[in-house]
Write a structure and sequence with these properties.
- With about 260 residues, the chain is α+β, with helices and mostly antiparallel strands.
- It contains eight helices and 14 strands.
- It has helices at about 5-25, 40-55, 70-75, 90-95, 150-155, 180-190, 205-210, 225-235; strands spanning about 30-35, 40, 60-65, 80-90, 100-110, 110-120, 125-130, 135, 155, 165-170, 195-200, 215-220, 240-245, 260-265.
- Strand 7 (about 125-130) and strand 8 form a beta hairpin.
- Helix 1 packs antiparallel against helix 2 (about 40-55) and helix 7 (about 205-210) packs parallel to helix 8 (about 225-235).
Length: about 260
């Protein structure tokens, strides 16, 4: 299968997961807690199952937040695999603010080469692949049966032109570290006026990819599945996702799946 054919499957998987997630979102759902005290809902589980049922047909391994117990000895031999977060932004889901996403990334060795992010409430799709670059597509229904080619025709190639905007830094709604505040102050000294914006989940990476933000400093913990799809979308839109105070890109499928701090710009 070509990369684009693989991403067709990821597209279908993301939409089916979005449909399952919305069904839960529009109901009176219960909240559980994982061992690390983070919240878990039926939507996480149903999204995971919907994605796995589609991606299994590609015969590539799957590394998911909801199925992360695969030992490193096995993972380290993977040449290509899927990195999945079925519901990124569970806290946003619980708040019912719509700022949660379905994230699926295609990883070659340690590098994201394609990604799909679907925003179910807003029916917005971000998709990137080496054969076509990065796109944003609006009004994509969860039951949509269009191909990537169909969607790209009505989508917007990223990055869009936002040349006249004030320099904008996107920061987490719930994770404003001292280092992030220092970064913003340094940018103010260099650029003058600086606007800050907050978004939940992987939407922060998408904002840089689409040009509505200039930088996203994440000087707080994230896991690989939080960033992999957005990383691919940013890279293929011409942006960098680099480790804190270096020019080294984020890498994936490490023994420890915790990301280092990073900067997107």
């Amino acid at each position: 299968m070509t990369t684009t054919q693989l991403l067709e499957t990821a597209l279908t998987a993301s939409l089916k997961a979005g449909e399952e997630i919305l069904n839960v979102y529009n109901s009176d759902f219960a909240i559980e807690h994982k061992e690390d005290k983070s919240p878990l809902t039926e939507a996480d589980k149903r999204g995971h199952n919907a994605i796995v049922s589609q991606l299994e047909g590609t015969d590539l391994p799957i590394l998911s937040e909801e199925g992360k117990s695969i030992d490193f000895d096995s993972r380290s031999k993977w040449e290509m695999f899927w990195m999945v977060d079925p519901l990124d932004g569970t806290k946003e889901f619980i708040k019912r603010n719509g700022e949660f996403t379905v994230n699926i990334a295609l990883i070659e060795k340690d590098t994201p080469i394609g990604g799909v992010i679907y925003v179910p409430v807003h029916k917005t799709l971000y998709i990137a692949g080496p054969e076509f670059g990065s796109y944003k597509v609006k009004n994509v229904e969860p039951n949509c049966s269009e191909t990537i080619s169909d969607l790209l025709k009505k989508g917007e190639k990223l990055p869009a032109n936002h040349a006249d905007q004030i320099y904008t830094v996107v920061a987490s709604r719930s994770h404003m570290s001292e280092e992030t505040a220092s970064f913003i102050e340094a940018v103010k000294k260099e650029k003058g006026a600086v606007e800050t914006m907050s978004r939940g989940s992987s939407l922060k990476l998408c904002m840089v990819a689409e040009g509505s933000a200039n930088a996203y400093p994440r000087y707080a913990p994230t896991m690989e599945w939080d960033t992999a799809a957005g990383d691919a979308i940013c890279r293929l839109a011409g942006f960098s996702v680099t480790q804190y105070q270096t020019d080294n890109p984020l890498v994936y499928n490490k023994e420890n799946l915790l990301n280092p701090w990073f900067l997107v710009k």
